[in-house]
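Onboarding guide, step 5: your first structure request.
Type a short instruction followed by the sequence, for example:

Predict the 3D structure of this protein.
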Amino acid sequence: MIGVVALLLAGVGGALLVRGSRRGELERRLWEVPAPLMVAGVIVGVGRRVLTAGVLGVDVGAGLTLLFGGPVVAGLPLWALVRGTRLANRRPAGHYRRGQQFEFAPREA
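The system replies with structure tokens like these:
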């Protein structure tokens, strides 16, 4: 029952994000934060399915899942955290630190 509720909430949340992105209410750059988390969730789900598969003999898929999936799943949330922090701390256009001057076009004389 909990899995069904979680799946429904994830679907509604994803639909709201897509709708906001299509309407222009959500910047497309902000997808760089939840996308790695969603990919990590898919890898964990598929990996769990592979690890719990009933097989006879050696389960090579389980070893490969742990070998390659573990570091990827550990790195994706870290990537999302760093990217989210950078997006949250970026300055709006036209705001500079004291002493900084950027000129992209020459001033008129």
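Each response can be followed by summary notes, for example: The helical segments are 2-23, 34-51, 60-88.
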